[in-house]
Design brief:
Length: about 80
């Protein structure tokens, strides 16, 4: 169980970094945007925000699983 927890944490952190960087790039404003461009930008930002929260949740679950296995292993000797 230790390996899946560590893998989930690493994948979650890597995807969180990617989502954060793309979100930062998407959040740059256009110089003179049309309403359609603003709507598309807002939708894109929401998608990347959701991806960021999901990947952080995956990281937290992986870390929790890793710590639980580690604590359980030390308790049993």
């Amino acid at each position: 169980m230790r390996a899946p927890g560590a893998i989930a944490a690493m994948v979650g952190f890597a995807s969180a970094i990617v989502c954060y960087l793309v979100l930062a790039a998407e959040a740059l404003p256009y110089q003179d945007p049309t309403p359609e461009m603003l709507a598309a930008l807002a939708a894109s930002v929401r998608v990347w925000q959701l991806g960021l929260f999901v990947s952080l949740g995956l990281s937290a679950a992986g870390i929790a699983g890793f710590m639980r296995f580690r604590r359980h292993r030390h308790a049993n000797g």
